[in-house]
Write a structure and sequence with these properties.
Shape: globular
Structural class: alpha+beta
CATH architecture of the largest domain: 2-Layer Sandwich
Number of domains: 3
Strand order of the largest sheet: 4-5-10-6-7
Largest sheet: 5 strands, antiparallel
Number of helices: 12
Radius of gyration: 19 Å
CATH class of the largest domain: Alpha Beta
Order of helices and strands: EHEHEEEHHHHHHEEHEEEEEEEHHH
Distance between the termini: 47 Å
Helix content: 25-40%
Length: 294
């Protein structure tokens, strides 16, 4: 099936893109197009206009800031991020989420900003952003910007804190984690490149004695938005991690979780898998934080 007719615009500045977004009622921003174009071909979406962001200079970069933060332009490709030495070294949870995101063709076209703004509850990147304490920078006309934490950015299935008629995502910022920190991303799916049945991102930092001083664990595909396993995080704080503690944390982390059932899996199965993946993610993240595993 072909998409419904639409107008096409290719602005060269963020300000022009935002102007068109306000002026063209029913318009959509086009980044990599991996999700949007598929929905249009199925006629599940029929925007009046597409505003292509690919000609805007300055939205495609990976930059280490002087304060230790990592800034990523919204139009940065998945593959560019996955290949980045700083991402591989400092943010293994993000690197693993990217590596397991679709096939190579998808990673050559998809963008970090497009994925986060789309907010698919089964997508790889949202849980990783929550686990890593990412900050999402959005722009309005006349240079106005605001920063939203990843915890607050994702509101519901395919819904974010963005004003879809006036704002666009322009940058993702990742904070520096302490030296003794480690993270991981894991998922269960029918094939490695498929959307997840359950996914988990974990980030842990420890003190010199190996006790957990901070833990962040987020799940995807189990709720309308990334699910913070705060119960698991609280169990870990102040302790050295072993098999028993990781298992208790995983049980506590999914206590109030009520995953959906669909053609891929029942809610009961998703909850059971969540326990297994959370335990494994905790153990791997802690081993990386303590230097036992790379």
């Amino acid at each position: 099936m072909r998409p419904a007719p639409f107008e096409y615009y290719a602005p060269e500045t963020v300000e022009d893109a935002l102007r068109l977004l306000e002026e063209k009622e029913g318009a959509k921003l086009l980044a990599g197009g991996q999700s949007l174009l598929a929905l249009m071909k199925l006629r599940l979406l029929a925007p009046s206009a597409l505003i292509d962001l690919n000609r805007i200079n300055g939205l495609r970069y990976i930059r280490e800031e002087g304060n230790g933060w990592l800034s990523i332009g919204a139009m940065t490709l998945y593959d560019e991020l996955e290949q980045s030495p700083v991402v591989r070294t400092r943010y293994p949870a993000l690197r693993e989420a990217l590596y397991r995101l679709g096939d190579q063709q998808v990673r050559n076209r998809g963008t970090i900003g497009g994925s986060l703004a789309h907010a698919d509850p089964s997508a790889n990147l949202p849980p990783a952003m929550v686990a890593l304490k990412a900050q999402i920078v959005v722009a309005r006309r006349n240079g106005e910007r605001r920063t939203i934490s990843a915890d607050d950015f994702f509101v519901d299935s395919f819904t974010t804190a963005l004003d879809p008629e006036r704002e666009m995502l322009v940058e993702v910022r990742l904070p520096p984690w302490p030296r003794m920190s480690g993270g991981t991303y894991m998922k269960l799916s029918k094939r490695e490149i498929d959307f997840s049945i359950v996914e988990v991102a974990a980030q842990i930092s420890v003190d010199d004695a190996g006790n957990v001083r901070e833990a962040r664990i987020a799940l995807g595909s189990v709720a309308p938005k990334p699910y913070r396993a705060t119960g698991a995080e609280s169990v870990l704080l102040g302790s050295k991690v072993d098999e028993g503690l990781a298992a208790r944390a995983a049980e506590k982390g999914v206590e109030g979780l009520e995953p959906p059932s669909d053609v891929q899996a029942t809610g009961w199965y998703r909850k059971e898998v969540s326990k297994v993946l959370v335990k494994r993610a905790i153990l791997k993240a802690w081993r990386r934080a303590t230097g036992v595993e790379q």
